[in-house]
User: Fold these one by one.
Assistant:
Number 1:
Amino acid sequence: MLAWTLTDGSAEDEIRCLGVAEAIADRIERRRIAPRGRYGWLAPFGPIDPRDAPGAAGGPITPLRGWPELVVGAGRKAVPYLASVKRASGGRTITAFMGATLAGRAVADIVAVDQGERLRGPNVVATPTRPHRMSAARLIAARGAPALFPTDARGRRVGVLLGARRTRWCAEDVSRLAAGLGRLRDDGAIIAVVPSRDADERLDMAVRTSAHYLWDRQGQDPTARLLAQSDALVASADNLLVLDEAVATGLPVMAFRPQGLDRREAAALDRLVSLGAARIFSGRLEDFAYTPIDSTAEIARAISAVIATRAALRPRPERRAPARSRETNGPNFR
């Protein structure tokens, strides 16, 4: 099956679309849009940029190998483009949208939202977390990858995921996290830290003395290895992707709560705590168990059901009985 992901290039949006597409399709094309001026401002309600019309040479929704069976989009600018693909393919392409917009649930065949959103309906899938690329198969493979943690060290392996944004963390937040990780190390924990590429550089200096390993943001992102090789996780709560990936492991997740979380982030954290999948980080390791929360697989199952239903309802070519043979060799002489 061929699937497209359709975003404006936002890293988080593309990761979430790829996670769903990878769970369903074996061939994936990343399509990125960049509507000009008013065409971007009017989204999700306006038309697509005319230069991006289906069939335009080099356009973001011009097919190279025929129309895809599935398009997974995210971000309000992608909404008009999903509709355009649907029309141009004659309705054959199934569309899925990750997130909620003011345009409601009519934006795609399937709309996936987290449970904190109000949007509901027969084509809406509401899940505790949002999709990502950390599938069970990928984590199993990452366990056999080169170790992030020192192999000669003894103690519980604690992976630390920092998605902190530069403008969000105050000096008190940085100090609290550094002190908490310091207590973990004093208690014998082996600590590996993977900051996101846009994380506050102050955190690197603050956690360096506690970390046995600190990713320098060079080369391939080692998040999958960290998730797969840890015994417990500490995750910053101001990046929902980090939390969503962490609770997909089934490991104890201690969420560090910086000041100034917005309404959506606070609600997501409170929901995971209420589900027993996370606890607030206090500088101590906690042992608890829960069923891994894999919203990516749940969304993929809903989309696959729509694809299967459409395939079953699609008219099949009528089978005709073979034509009777006729003599074609001229008159029949006796």
Number 2:
Amino acid sequence: MQPRNDKPSVVLSPKEARRKTVRVGTLAEFLMKSPLCDADLDVKRQRDEPKDG
């Protein structure tokens, strides 16, 4: 099957679609398991300049 944007499509059974979209754990758990969890990152938001867009 080829949609209008020429990107291939995949057809899944409802059972397979549910299996692929089910969440495993919470966002917090996912972030805690990240390799960057112990990295010393500066995550402060800059408030001095307006956002683009």
